[in-house]
Amino acid sequence: MTPLKRARLLPLLLLGCTLGACMVGPSYQRPAAPITPTYKEAEGWAPANPSDAADRRDWWTVFDDATLDDLEQRVEVSNQNLKAAEAAYRQAEALVSQQRAALFPTIGLTGSADRSGGGGSAIGSGGSQGRTGNSFRVGASGSWEPDVWGRIRRTIENAKAGAQASAADLANARLSAQTSLALDYIQLRQLDAQKRLLDATVDAYARSLTVTQNKYNAGVVARSDVLSAQTQLINAQASNTDLVQQRARLEHAIAILTGRAPAEVTIAPADWTLKVPGIPAGVPSTLLERRPDIAAAERRAAAANAEIGVATAAYFPSLTLTGQGGYASSELGQLFSASSSFWSIGASVAETVFDAGARKAQVRQARAAYDQAVATYRQAVLTGLGQVEDNLAAQRVLATEQTQRDAALAAATQNERIVANQYNAGQVDYTAVVVAQTAALGAQQTALQNQANQLAAAVDLISALGGGWTTAQGAK
Predict the structure, then answer these.
(1) Is the distance from CB of 186 to CB of 448 less than 8 angstroms?
(2) Taking burial as the number of CB atoms within 10 A of a residue's CB, which of 38, 48, 231, 341 is the most buried?
(3) What is the pLDDT of residue 396?
(4) pLDDT tens, position by position, 309-321
(5) Residue 87 belongs to a domain
(6) Residue 326: which of 106, 107, 110, 105 has the closest Cα?
(7) Is the overall model pTM greater than 0.85, yes or no?
(8) Mean of the per-residue pLDDT values of the chain
(9) How many other C-beta atoms lie within 10 A of the C-beta of residue 27?
(10) 150 inside domain
């Protein structure tokens, strides 16, 4: 084929690629995730892949607490971290529109009116007369770079994946704030229960001190018994006082999560009513698709894949079409006449001949960034699977432990009563009383802590599944 024929064929090839949506670079395929058919800690769970559009419900309602429900609703409306994430998502959406605009021509309008002249001056024996003239001009110009090799479309693809990742980041920020609030609230109610326990303990220790003081006054026991009773009472009072500071910190943290100043939020003490929700054995692992952090990682892998196409497109020539037209005249009345019109159209092709390997390095960099994004995505899946496994195990083990803790509490409480009666009868010294009371208080606190741990594990499991989990959903 002669050079002339090749030159004539080039525009046809460019037009064909444009009409045929020619795009260089690899087409995206979701990377394989390192998942297993079932969870080790719960049989019957199926594999999962990330899904951005999964519905998320008010998962905290499974705890059936009106105060928690109200606080969680405030997170959605007022949390400042969520507002920042939402603004970042709007920026990402705007970037998609900005990149998409590059697919279309750019058109501009111009207009001008000038009046110019100069004064006359004598030259030799003659002279020149200065002239004044007008110039009017209106026109339009346009330029367009056809997306022959798909560079712009790959850029749009990158921006869209980035926007989807930003949406997942927003969902992840929301879930994180909701989870933090639920955990703080559980701990706050645990402190309320612990406060009631210590209030009762202080009263009991005060009665023990009175009994011991009376025995000492009667010369039945030694002064050391009184001092032991006093020490035990004061330590219990100090522990009770410390709970006030711990509760205040949690109340302040909850206020900030709901987007309010700590001075504006007061949560009244309440009874321990939170119950651990039951977990059906057959909850499918497809709920792992609800994890927004996994969805964000997968979308960033898609964005990185598009960058490979953008870098590859730099190997090919760029085509730019330009055109302009309008009217120009020295007389305003003749401006829009046919004789005053002008136009031009043109095309230019640019190709880099030598760049010392810069484009090749950019493609390598893009491919390495994609490999990094894929590894990050797979690690996110592994992390998610591990968190689900951890919390499934925690739910099972803590439930068994609670039975054991309750049995230990019953035994310690009974022993405390027996030793107290023995002391009053003069059969044992006060050291035995202190040991029995300390053991009973420790058993009560440990049982309460285990209940809180079960609730926290339930919250963490729901969060590990991406939120939106309920018993009804799990049964499907």
Answers:
(1) no
(2) 48
(3) 87
(4) 999 999 999 899 9
(5) yes
(6) 110
(7) no
(8) 85
(9) 9
(10) yes
User: Which domain CATH number covers 74?
Assistant: 1.20.1600.10
pLDDT 10s digits, 418-464: 999 998 888 998 899 999 999 999 999 999 999 999 999 999 988 88
With tokens 């004064």, the residue in question is 119
Residue 44 domain flag: yes
Residue 10 neighbours by CB under 8 Å, 6+ apart: 349
Residues 282 and 475: beta-carbon distance below 8 Å:
yes
Into how many domains does the chain fold?
1
- For residue 405, the one-letter residue type is R
User: Could you tell me the residue range of the domain that residue 245 belongs to?
Assistant: 20-106+137-316+351-474
Model pLDDT for residues 7-46, shown as the tens digit of each residue: 444 454 445 454 445 789 899 998 988 877 777 777 644 4
3-class SS letters over the chain = CCHHHHHHHHHHHHHHHHHCCCCCCCCCCCCCCCCCCCECCECCCCCCCCCCCCCCCCHHHHHCCHHHHHHHHHHHHHCHHHHHHHHHHHHHHHHHHHHHHHHCCEEEEEEEEEEEECCCEEECCEEECCCEEEEEEEEEEEEECCCCCCHHHHHHHHHHHHHHHHHHHHHHHHHHHHHHHHHHHHHHHHHHHHHHHHHHHHHHHHHHHHHHHHHHHCCCCCHHHHHHHHHHHHHHHHHHHHHHHHHHHHHHHHHHHCCCCHHHCCCCCCCCCCCCCCCCCCCCHHHHHHCHHHHHHHHHHHHHHHHHHHHHHCCCCEEEEEEEEEEEECCHHHCCCHHHEEEEEEEEEECCCCCCCHHHHHHHHHHHHHHHHHHHHHHHHHHHHHHHHHHHHHHHHHHHHHHHHHHHHHHHHHHHHHHHHHHHCCCCCHHHHHHHHHHHHHHHHHHHHHHHHHHHHHHHHHHHCCCCCCHHHHCC
Spatial separation of the C-alpha atoms in residues 411 and 439, rounded to whole Å: 10
Say if 429 falls within a structural domain: yes
Rounded Cα distance between 469 and 296, Å, is 20
Q: How far apart are CA 387 and CA 406, in angstroms?
A: 28
Cα 440 from chain centroid (whole Å): 44
